[in-house]
Write a structure and sequence with these properties.
Layout lengths: L6 E5 L5 H12 L3 E6 L2 H13 L3 E6 L5 H14 L1 E7 L14 H29 L2 E6 L3 H4 L5 H21 L4 E6 L7 H4 L3 H10 L8 H12 L10 E2 L9
Parallel strand pairs: 1-2, 1-4, 2-3, 4-5, 5-6, 6-7
């Protein structure tokens, strides 16, 4: 494909849930979206969904913790046009007591969430710095702020993304690149809907709003941070969480 003047967004882990909602929203907002997912069929389906919603998208399957796969993602973005936005959304959950975690569990959690964000950012950031324009958004979690029982490695990885956001924002903000994070609370994703109805009802009752958020609520937060209206947001962590965490 020949490059165009269209702004390009890269969304990792966009095969379902929050990532898919983000990709669809950005497509409607005029971005050409590079949709990444570990599963090729999920990436292809997500790209079709973005297109059917009126946007433009290409699918690139791959593991964000691998340098070769990240290089392919970056190359696809540059082939489309100007990579202006990176949403480091790839991740996964695993619930286990700390004493039952293996080193492999811990390493894989950090490889996907933290190493993946590092590699994708490293691949696209130089072009943003050269143009003195760009936006990077880390998909963290409220558990990176308050912790979660039987989610020590997940919470630690999400906390690392918040720390990465703040440090990188201080480093590259003066060069025209804005870096922020989003820390969702309970969201109606396929993973959450798979939990028991009793748990979902009890958790919703704890929330000041009395309900979970939707993936589109998180997508709206991402779209705002990517917009010119968020021009003075730098190193911030926004929390679409129904009031579960207030900072």
């Amino acid at each position: 494909m020949m490059p165009t003047d269209q702004r390009v967004a890269v969304v990792t882990g966009a095969g379902s849930g929050i990532g898919l909602a983000v990709a669809r929203r950005l497509g409607r907002n005029g971005y050409a979206v590079v949709v990444n997912d570990l599963v090729p069929e999920s990436a292809e389906a997500a790209a079709r969904s973005v297109t059917e919603a009126g946007g433009s998208a290409v699918a690139v399957a791959g593991d964000v913790s691998g340098e070769a796969d990240v290089a392919r993602i970056a190359a696809a973005a540059e082939a489309l046009g100007t990579p202006a936005l990176l949403v480091n959304n790839a991740g996964y959950g695993q619930q286990a007591r700390f004493v039952d975690l293996t080193p492999a569990d811990f390493d894989r959690m950090f490889a996907v969430h933290v190493r993946g964000a590092f590699l994708c950012t490293r691949a696209l950031l130089p072009g943003m710095i050269e143009r003195r324009s760009g936006c990077i958004i880390m998909m963290a979690s409220q558990l990176g702020q308050i912790g979660g029982i039987e989610l020590v490695h997940y919470s630690a990885a999400k906390a690392a993304l918040i720390g990465m956001t703040k440090s990188l924002a201080r480093e590259v903000g003066p060069q025209g690149v804005r870096v922020n994070a989003v820390a969702p609370g309970p969201i109606n994703t396929p993973l959450v809907r798979a939990l028991s109805e009793d748990w979902r009802r009890a958790k919703a009752a704890e929330l000041p709003l009395g309900r979970f958020g939707e993936p589109e609520d998180v997508a709206a937060t991402v779209a705002f941070l990517a917009s010119d209206e968020a021009g003075i947001y730098l190193g911030q962590t926004l929390g679409p969480n129904s009031g579960d965490v207030m900072l």
